Amino acid sequence: MAKESGSSKIEMLEISNEAMAEAQSSKIEMLEINNEAMAEAQSSKTVTMKPAEAEESKTETQKITDEESKNVPIAATEEESKKLSITKVEESKNAATATTEGEKEEAKVSLKTLDGVTFEVEAWIAKEMETVQAYIDDTSADTSAAIAIPLHNVAGRELARMVEYCKEHRRASVSAGNLKEFEERFAAALNLYEMKDLIIAANYLNTKKLLESLSRCIAKAIKNKSVEFVRDYFGVTNDYTTEEEAQYRETNAWAFRNVDEDSRN
Amino acid sequence: MEEACEFRSWAELIPDALGVIFTNLSLQERVTVIPRVCKSWANAVTGPYCWQEIDIKDWSNRCQPDQLDRLLEMLITRSSGSLRKLSVSGLQTESIFTFIAENACSLHTLRLPRSSMNDSIVEQIAGRLSMISFLDVSYCIKIGPYALEMIGKNCKLLEGLCRNMHPLDTASKPFQDDEAYAIASTMPKLKHLEMAYHLISTSGVLQILANCPKLEFLDQRGCWGVTLDHMFLKQKFPKLKVLGPFVLDTYESDGWDDFSDVSDSSEYLAWDFVAGGMEEYYVDDSDSYDGMWDDEGRLDELQFGFYEGIEDAGMYWPPSP
C-alpha cells in the first residue's frame, strides 16, 4: 500500500515534469523556427570570404556561426548532393588563412564537404566524428595541419547540423532533463528528408551520439504502427506481391501469433 | 516539402543506418512489421546489426520449448557472431546451451533465468563464456555451488551476478553456504550481487564481503539466515548498498531497514502466500535492476533510460559518478 502510493506520486511528478518540458520545448520551437528562417534568409546570399575579412578579429563562437550560415547555400547544397562524383580537393587561400589563424588559439581541424564548403571545427568535435578522428590518427601531424580533410559523402548542410548538435549536446549534458529536451527539440526542427540525410551523414562519419538520438526519434515515430503506415511515412514503395506477403506470414507464423493487427494505427 | 528522388528514398538508406533505427523497435515489430514494408528492409532487418541484442524473455513465457529453441537459434544465427546481450527464460534443452556458448565470443550480458541447466552442462560451456561481465542464473534450481565455481573460474570479467531464488523453492530447506563460498572464492571483481530468498547464512555473506572488495550492491531480501548489524556494515563497507531484512523471524518487523518493501508484517504475510503475484513481483524487480546495470557503462543511455521509466530503480541505485 505504502509503496503503491509512493509509486503513483512519482508517476504524477513525472507527468507534470513532462508537461512542463513540453510547454518549454514548444516555446523553444517557436524561437527555433524564427532562427531557422533568419538563417535561411542569410544563407540565400552567396558570400565569398575575402582574406581581409578573415583577418578581422571576431569572437570564436560568432566567427564559426557566421561561417556556418554564410557557407551553406541551400540551393547549391541540394544541387550538389545529387551528384555522386567525388569532388576534387583543392586547397584555397581562405582555408590556408583560416587554418593559420586557428593554430594560434587551439587545435582546429579543417573539413571540406562534398559541395566544397570548408569548416573549421574544434578538435574535440572532430573527435566525436570517429571517421574523421581515424583519418587524423592515420595522417602525420605536419600534413594534417595544412590540408582540409575531404568528406566525400557529406554535404555542408548536414555537417553544419552535426557541428551544432555536438556543441549543444555538450552544453545540455549537465542534466538528463536538459539533454532529453535538447534532443527532442533538435529532431523536431527537421523534416523527414532532412532527418534521413543527417542519419546518413552521421552514419558515414560515425558520430554515434547523434546517430543513436536520431534513430530513437525515427523508431518512436513508427512504434506500434501498421505496415501501411510505415510505408506511407517513409514514402517506401511496396515491392511485394500479395502472394509473397502471404508467404512471409506463413513462414513466420510463430511471430504473428498473439499479434493484434487491429491495435496498430 | 521537397520531392524525393530515387537516390534519396528511405528504402535505399544504408543498411547499417537502418539497423540502428530497427534496434530501437521491439522484437515483434522487427519480425512482423519491418520485413513487410519492402524487400530491401527485409534484408536490412536480418543483418547482424539488428541482432546484437536479443531479449525474448517475454516471448519465452508463451513458446513451447522446442519452438523457443528454434527461434533462439534463428536469431542468434542472424547476429553472425556479434551477439552482445541475450535474455531468454525457461530454456530446457541441453543442445541450446551449447549453441549459445558456441556463439558467445562477443557476449557480455547473459540472462538465463528459470533454465534447466545443471552442473554438468555449466561445466561444458563455461569455458566459452569468458567475455561475460553480467550473468543472471536466477531460479535455476538444478545448478549448485559447483556450477558457480566453474562460472567464476572461467568468467574472469564477471561484475554482476543474479542468483535470486523463489521462496517456494527454498522454503523449509536448511541454510547452505556452499554457493556463497563458491562466489567468494572465484568472483573477486563482483560489483553487483542479487541473492533474494537464497539459503545463504551470515557466514556466507561475510565470506563474500571479505573476498569481493569492489561490491557496491547486495540484494539479500528474504535471506532469513542472514543477521548482520546495519552499523557494522556501514562502518566496514561504506560503499556497499544492502537491500534486505536482517532478521531470522518473519514475524518480527523491527529489524527491517529503510529499503524494506513492506511497511508492516501483516501486509507481508498476506503478500507472502500469493505465489503467482510473488513470482510476477520478483520477475519485475529483477528486470529493473538488470536494466539499471546494463546501462551503467553508457551514461547517456542511462540518463535517457531513467526518464523513460524504470520506476523504482532510481530509489535503490546510487547516482553515477
Automatic annotation (TrEMBL), chain A:
Residues spanning the membrane: none
Compositional bias ranges of the Basic and acidic residues kind: 52-70, 79-93
Pfam families reported in the protein's UniProt record: Skp1, Skp1_POZ
Domain SKP1 component POZ positions: 108-170
The keyword Nucleotide-binding is assigned to this record: no
GO biological process, one term: jasmonic acid mediated signaling pathway
Family: Belongs to the SKP1 family.
UniProt-listed InterPro entries: SKP1, SKP1-like, SKP1-like_dim_sf, SKP1/BTB/POZ_sf, Skp1_comp_dimer, Skp1_comp_POZ
UniProt keyword terms in alphabetical order: Ubl conjugation pathway
Domain SKP1 component dimerisation: 208-255
Region spans: Disordered: 31-107
Pathway: Protein modification; protein ubiquitination
Protein name: SKP1-like protein
GO molecular function: cullin family protein binding
GO cellular component, one term: cytoplasm
Keyword Oxidoreductase applies: no
UniProtKB/TrEMBL annotation, chain B:
Superkingdom to which the source organism belongs: Eukaryota
Family annotation (InterPro entries): LRR_dom_sf
PANTHER family given in the database record: F-BOX DOMAIN CONTAINING PROTEIN, EXPRESSED, F-BOX DOMAIN, LEUCINE-RICH REPEAT DOMAIN SUPERFAMILY
Protein's recorded name: F-box protein FBW2 isoform A
Organism: Glycine soja (Wild soybean)
